[in-house]
Specification:
This protein is of the alpha/beta class. The chain is 37% helix and 13% strand. The protein folds into three domains: 332 residues, Rossmann fold (3-Layer(aba) Sandwich); 211 residues, Rossmann fold; 177 residues, Rossmann fold, CATH 3.40.50.920. Helix 16 links the parallel strand 15 and strand 16. The longest helix is centred in the first third of the chain and has 29 residues. Belongs to the XFP family.
Length: 783
C-alpha cells in the first residue's frame, strides 16, 4: 500500500513536471520565479503545446513508481505529437537529461537553459525527437506510436512498452490499423505493449471522435480487438492518482500473469491484453479561462493557452498565477535542484526511462550473422545467355540468415502478404509467417513462432520494422514497388530521425533500414497501370545524402552483393529495386562484386568502342532498362557496325551525383572515364527521368544526357510493350542514339525504318497473340 506521504510526493513530482513544461513554453529568464514575472522574462515567440503535457507527465510519474516497485524495464512511447515539454521535463527531473547534456545541469542555471533551448534557434524541437532521451518515436507526425511500440516489443521478452496514444492521433488510419498488432505479438518470446489511450477531448480546433464515445462503446470497440479495457478518468488530481495506482498495479499483474501462463504452457494468447483509457481535461491544471472563454478542458489549451503575455499585463498575471500554483519554492531548493524526497521517486541508472538501453538501440545491437553470399552465386558462363529469378536466388541467402541467427532472435522479414509473390519463399524452409489467431489445416507456413511478419498494411510493416531497428535489431522490408509509396511520409520521418541521430554523439548507430522493392513497374503483366509507379525513388533521393542509398542490381549476382552490403551497414536507409521475373544474367559473381564496389562500370563485352572515344554512350540503371540498353547496343552493332558504342551500367544510382552532393558520387576523372566529356549519353532508367537530369547537373555538358524512363504510360500489356509505351524499348533507344551522332546522319533513315518496322510488327503481334514476339521474348546476347 502506498502511504499518504508517498502520494503527496508523487503529486508534487507531477507539479514539478508541469511547472517545467509550462516554463519551456513561456520563460527565457527568472526560471524559478524568484522575483515577480516581467515581460522581459517571457520569450518573444511562444511556441509549443501545453494541452497534452499534464496527462503525459501524469503517466510518466506513475510509470516511475511501477518501475521502482517492480524493477521492470519500461519504454515510454509518446504518441501525442508535440508532447516534448512533458517528456523533456521528466527526463530532466530523473537526471537523464543532464547526464546526456551536461550543459543543462540540475540547478537553477540548468532550468534556465532548459527553458531557453525549447523551440528556439540552436535549441530543440517542440516535438519529441531524436534529441529526447528515452525516445524512439518522432513526434512530428501522428499515427505511428502504437506500431512502433509493437516493433520494439518483438523479441524483447522482458520489456513493457507503455504507449500513450493521443485521441487526435487515434483518428489516423495507421493508428487504427495498429490495434491489430496483437494478432502478431507472441508473449512466449515478445515483450508486452500497454496502450494508454489518452482522451482529453480535443484536437487543434475540434473535438476528437473517441473522446465523444461512451465507455460502453469504447469497451466494445477495444474488446473486439482483443483488449481488456481499464478506465482512469476525472479531474481531481488526488483521486486520479489513487485510481491510477490501483489500475496500473492491476494491469501490471495481468501482463505478468499472461506472460507466465504463455511461457510455462507455451500457449500464445491474443485476447485479454490490458489497455488503459485515461480521460483528463485538455490543458489540465492550466489557465481556466480568458475573456469568458474556457481554456482548460477546451481546444484553446491545445497549444499556447495565453499568447499575448509579453504585451498584455493581465495575461502576464494569469501566467504567473498559473505557474506559482505549482509552488516551485517547495519543489526546488535554493540552488534550483529538485527536493531530495522528490528525487528519490525516480528510478536509478538504466532503469530510468530516459536511459533505457533499448531506447538507444545501437548500445544493444548485436551484429547480424551473415552467410557467405558467394556460395549463392548464379553461374554466368557468358553474358546475357542464361535466365534466373534474381529474388528467388536471393531468397536462399535470406533463408540462411534466419538459420544463422535463430538463437539470437534479432532478425525479421516484414512484407505485406507478398513473400511468396516476391519469390522469397525459400525462407519458409527455416521459419514461418507469424500469426496468433486461429489456424487451419489449409494454411501455409503459419505459426506463432514465425519470423516473417506478413500483414496487408504497408504502414504496419514499416512501423514494426522501425521500432524493431531502433531498439537494436535487424530486418528487411520487401514490398511491391507501386505500394511502398503508401509509407512515404513514414519513411521521411524516419530518415529525418536517422539524420538527426547521426549528429548526436550519444545516439549509437543502429542497423540500416533496408527495402527490397520488387514486382516493379516494368513487369506488371496482369496488374497493369494501378501497379506501375516508381515514385518512392523520388522520395528517397530527396532525403539527406548522409542517410540514403539507392541501388539497381541488374541481375542475381549483383543483388547478392548489394544486399550483403546493406545488411552489413548501419544508420542508412537502403533502397534496392530488383525484379522477380526470370531475366537474363550478365555478370559472374566476381564481376558483380567489382561492379557494385565501383557503383558504375563500362561493360566492355557489350560495346565496340574498345576503349577509344565512343560516338555514343548507352547507359542504364535497373534490370529492365539494362536488358533494353544491352539489346539496343546489339541492334546498333548489327545495323551500324561502324558506330562506336559504349555501354555503362549503374548499380549505385548516387554514383552519378557529384561527390560534393553525395559521398558515393564519382570523382570527375572517374565520371569522365565512363561517360567522356563530349559523347551523347542515351540513358535508360527505371524511374522518372528528371531524377537523372538532377543527378548529372554539374557534370560536364549535362545537356548531352537524354533520358528515357517511366513516363506514366501503362496498362495490362506484355513486358516488352511496357518499354515501348514509355519510349524505352531497344528500338527507341537505338533511334535516339543515332539521332545524336552527326556522322551517322546518312544512315539514320535506314536505321529508323528498320526500328519502326520492328515496332509495328511488335504491335500487330501482341494484339493478335497476346504475347511478345519470339525474337523479343527469347532474345539472348550473342556477341
Amino acid at each position: 500500500m502506498i502511504t499518504e506521504q508517498q502520494l503527496q510526493d508523487m503529486h508534487r513530482y507531477w507539479q514539478a513536471a508541469n511547472y517545467l513544461s509550462a516554463g519551456q513554453i513561456y520563460l527565457q529568464d527568472n526560471p524559478l520565479l524568484r522575483e515577480p514575472l516581467k515581460p522581459d522574462h517571457i520569450k518573444p515567440r511562444l511556441l509549443g503545446h501545453w494541452g497534452t503535457s499534464p496527462g503525459l507527465s501524469f503517466i510518466y510519474v506513475h510509470l516511475n513508481r511501477l518501475i521502482k516497485e517492480t524493477g521492470s524495464d519500461v519504454l515510454y512511447i509518446c504518441g501525442p505529437g508535440h508532447g516534448a515539454p512533458a517528456i523533456v521535463a521528466n527526463a530532466y527531473l530523473e537526471g537523464s537529461y543532464s547526464e546526456i547534456y551536461p550543459h543543462v545541469p540540475m540547478d537553477e542555471k540548468g532550468i534556465k537553459q532548459l527553458f531557453r533551448q525549447f523551440s528556439t534557434p540552436g535549441g530543440i524541437p517542440s516535438h519529441v525527437s531524436a534529441h529526447t532521451p528515452g525516445s524512439i518515436h518522432e513526434g512530428g507526425e501522428l499515427g505511428y506510436s502504437l506500431v512502433h511500440a509493437f516493433g520494439a516489443a518483438f523479441d524483447n521478452p522482458d520489456l513493457i512498452v507503455a504507449c500513450v496514444v493521443g485521441d487526435g492521433e487515434a483518428e489516423t488510419a495507421p493508428l487504427e490499423g495498429s490495434w491489430k498488432s496483437l494478432s502478431f505479438l507472441n508473449p512466449v518470446r515478445d515483450g508486452a505493449v500497454l496502450p494508454i489511450l489518452h482522451l482529453n477531448g480535443y484536437k487543434i480546433a475540434g473535438p476528437t471522435v473517441l473522446a465523444r464515445k461512451t465507455n460502453a462503446e469504447l469497451t466494445a470497440l477495444f474488446s473486439g480487438y482483443g483488449y481488456e479495457v481499464f478506465f482512469v478518468e476525472g479531474s481531481n488530481p488526488m483521486v486520479m492518482h489513487r485510481n491510477m495506482i490501483e489500475i496500473l498495479d492491476n494491469v501490471y499483474a495481468r501482463i505478468r500473469s499472461l506472460q507466465q501462463r504463455s511461457r510455462t504452457g507455451n500457449e500464445p494468447v491474443v485476447n485479454g491484453w490490458p489497455m488503459i483509457i485515461m480521460r483528463t481535461p485538455k490543458g489540465w491544471t492550466g489557465p481556466k479561462e480568458w475573456e469568458h472563454q474556457p481554456i482548460e478542458n477546451s481546444f484553446r489549451s491545445h497549444q499556447v493557452p495565453l499568447t499575448a503575455v509579453k504585451t498584455n499585463p493581465e495575461q502576464l498575471r494569469l501566467v504567473e498565477d498559473w505557474m506559482r500554483s505549482y509552488a516551485p519554492e517547495k519543489l526546488f531548493d535554493k540552488n534550483g535542484r529538485l527536493m531530495p524526497e522528490l528525487q528519490s521517486l525516480a528510478p536509478s541508472g538504466n532503469k530510468r526511462m530516459g536511459m533505457l538501453a533499448v531506447a538507444n538501440g545501437g548500445t544493444v545491437l548485436k551484429e547480424l550473422q551473415l552467410p557467405d553470399f558467394k556460395q549463392y552465386a548464379v553461374n554466368v558462363p557468358h553474358p546475357g545467355t542464361r535466365e534466373a529469378e534474381s529474388t528467388r536466388n536471393f531468397g536462399n541467402y535470406l533463408r540462411d540468415i534466419f538459420e544463422l541467427n535463430k538463437d539470437h532472435h534479432n532478425f525479421r522479414l516484414f512484407c505485406p502478404d507478398e513473400t511468396a509473390s516476391n519469390r522469397l519463399q525459400a525462407v519458409f524452409e527455416k521459419t514461418a509467417r507469424c500469426f496468433l489467431e486461429a489456424r487451419m489445416t489449409t494454411d501455409d507456413h503459419l505459426s506463432p513462432e514465425g519470423r516473417v511478419m506478413e500483414v496487408l498494411s504497408e504502414h504496419l510493416c514499416e512501423g514494426w520494422l522501425e521500432g524493431y531497428l531502433l531498439t537494436g535489431r535487424h530486418g528487411l522490408f520487401s514490398c511491391y514497388e507501386a505500394f511502398i509509396t503508401i509509407i512515404d511520409s513514414m519513411f521521411s520521418q524516419y530518415a529525418k530521425w536517422i539524420k538527426t541521430s547521426r549528429e548526436l554523439p550519444w545516439r549509437k548507430p543502429v542497423a540500416s533500414l533496408n527495402y527490397l522493392l520488387t514486382s516493379h513497374s516494368w513487369r506488371q503483366d496482369h496488374n497493369g497501370y494501378s501497379h506501375q509507379g516508381p515514385g518512392f525513388i523520388d522520395t528517397v533521393i530527396n532525403k539527406k545524402s548522409s542517410v540514403t542509398r539507392i541501388y539497381f542490381p541488374p541481375d542475381a549476382n549483383t543483388l547478392l552483393s548489394v544486399m550483403h552490403h546493406c545488411f552489413s551497414s548501419k544508420d542508412y536507409a537502403n533502397l534496392v529495386v530488383a525484379g522477380k521475373q526470370p531475366e537474363l544474367q550478365w555478370l559472374t559473381l566476381e564481376e558483380a562484386i567489382t561492379h557494385c564496389a565501383r557503383g558504375a562500370s563500362v561493360w566492355k563485352w557489350a560495346g565496340n568502342d574498345e576503349g577509344a572515344q565512343p560516338d555514343v554512350v548507352i547507359a542504364c540503371a535497373g534490370d529492365v532498362p539494362t536488358l533494353e540498353a544491352v539489346a539496343a547496343v546489339a541492334v546498333l552493332r548489327e545495323q551500324l557496325p561502324d558506330l562506336k558504342v559504349r555501354l555503362v551500367n549503374i548499380v549505385d544510382l548516387m554514383a552519378l551525383s557529384p561527390i560534393l552532393y553525395h559521398p558515393h558520387g564519382l570523382g570527375e576523372d572517374a565520371f569522365t572515364e565512363l561517360f567522356t566529356n563530349e559523347a551523347p549519353v542515351i540513358f535508360a532508367f527505371h524511374g522518372y527521368v528528371r531524377i537523372i537530369h538532377d543527378l548529372v547537373h554539374g557534370r560536364p555538358n549535362p545537356e548531352r544526357f537524354h533520358v528515357r524512363g517511366y513516363m506514366e504510360e501503362g496498362t495490362t500489356t506484355t513486358p516488352f510493350d511496357m518499354t515501348v509505351l514509355n519510349n524505352m524499348s531497344r528500338y527507341q533507344l537505338a533511334m535516339e542514339a543515332v539521332k545524336r551522332v552527326p556522322r551517322m546522319v546518312q544512315m539514320r533513315d535506314r536505321l529508323n525504318t528498320y526500328c519502326e518496322e520492328k515496332l509495328k510488327e511488335h504491335r500487330s503481334y501482341i494484339c493478335t497473340y497476346f504475347d511478345d514476339l519470339p525474337e523479343i521474348k527469347n532474345w539472348k546476347w550473342t556477341y
